[in-house]
Amino acid sequence: MTIPVITIDGPGGVGKGTVCLRLAQHLGWHTLDSGAMYRVLALAAQQHSVRLDDEKALVNLAVDLKVNFEPLADLSGTRIILEGQDVSLVLRAESSGAAASKIAALPAVREALLGRQRAFRQAPGLVADGRDMGTVVFSDALLKVFLTATVEERANRRYKQLKEKGIDAKLDDLVAEIADRDKRDMKRSVAPLQPAPDALLIDTTIISVDKVMARILSVLELRNL
Ligand code: C5P
Prior knowledge:
By secondary structure, the chain is of the alpha/beta class.
């Protein structure tokens, strides 16, 4: 039997991570934060003095990358260990997202990470969040969700999240950075950010995470999943 996957795609700051975790907790499934994989590779590149446009060197780095994703005991998130160091917090900075988005536009880099992402598909099931989970990586997913929200609202949420984590940020800068990243992610030639044709679209600008969850669970129920 194939192991079931639910994909949660959408732009940065839309709430994918929260919805992915909540859904996985509810179903007792595993999670994949695919954005973290791009973020961690970009960080490793910086640490190994590899340029973010050096596709060949990035692929070599991706192949040998010693990274572990360790679910926290209370399942509230994942600790990310890069070459023995806990990098979970530094990966959340917007600069890390921007670096990730640069390397994510390179086709060979995406290809190199594909196998690592698919390896997360383990019983009893997987909830995967990212940009191309439903369109490319798990195109056979049993449910595909695509979340949207205005740039301003997403910047606001990011701002609050970063503040809570003690990371310094300016709201105006976040709006500009998020818009910039959206543009790069939507315009790239491989796996651009776009909903799968069969995705369930949910605009989260004015609805709470609870309502998003209720919507997804009701669709799962309607489809007898
Ligand atoms: O979701 P997150 O903000 O962590 O993603 C960081 C960047 O990684 C995105 O802006 C995008 O360029 C890239 N990414 C991707 N495909 C994914 C997940 C993330 O290209 N499945």
